[in-house]
TrEMBL record:
Membrane topology: Multi-pass membrane protein
TM segment ranges: 29-47, 94-116, 128-149
Entries under InterPro entries matching the protein: DAGK, DAGK_sf, UDPK
This protein's UniProt keywords: ATP-binding, Cell membrane, Kinase, Lipid biosynthesis, Lipid metabolism, Membrane, Nucleotide-binding, Phospholipid biosynthesis, Phospholipid metabolism, Transferase, Transmembrane, Transmembrane helix
Protein name, as recorded: Diacylglycerol kinase family protein
Family: Belongs to the bacterial diacylglycerol kinase family.
Source lineage: Bacteria, Bacillati, Bacillota, Clostridia, Eubacteriales
Organism of origin: Butyricicoccus faecihominis
Any Pfam family the entry gives: DAGK_prokar
Subcellular location: Cell membrane
Length: 155
């Protein structure tokens, strides 16, 4: 029993290590994290429903999961290839296309929720009447830019 619990806890540690590596090394993963942060922030201010929030969380999870898999595929391909290899290039491009498809679907879902349901307008109105909070959000933008482009190793 103790051995099973230890193996389970080790698997979580490995998963968190992989997540930490991706956050540290992969700019595109940080882009997805930053986008998710602002979508969540404006969703809270705009009053998304629980169902809409769940759909957005699924979108974030799928897109970031695809980015994690893309990173793993790219690293394995780079490890295997010695020099240029057309098949490796194709594999990496296809993996990147998978992330692109997930991200595009996430943008479409976000547009339906934020524009179609008036969440964006409600969030802007909410922040307009609480200018101090709106200014706090604006202050986070340079921090987000630093996080995306300067945190960890720049890719």
């Amino acid at each position: 029993m103790k051995k099973n619990i230890r193996k389970l806890s080790e698997s979580f540690l490995h998963a968190f290590r992989g997540l930490r590596l991706c956050i540290h090394d992969e700019r595109n993963f940080r882009v997805h994290m930053t986008a998710a942060f602002y979508v969540i922030l404006f969703g809270v201010f705009g009053g998304v429903s629980m169902t809409e929030a769940a759909i957005l969380c699924i979108c974030f999870g799928l897109t970031m999961g695809a980015e994690l898999l893309n990173t793993a595929i790219e690293r394995l391909c780079d490890k295997q290839a010695s020099g240029y290899d057309g098949m490796v290039r194709n594999a990496k491009d296809i993996a990147a296309a998978g992330v692109f498809v997930c991200a595009a679907a996430c943008v479409a879902v976000g547009a339906c929720i934020f524009i179609g349901n008036g969440v964006l307008a409600a969030a802007i109105k909410f922040l307009w009447y609480r200018l101090w909070l709106g200014m706090a959000v604006v202050v986070t933008v340079p921090i987000a830019v630093w996080f995306v482009f300067h945190f960890g190793r720049i890719q």
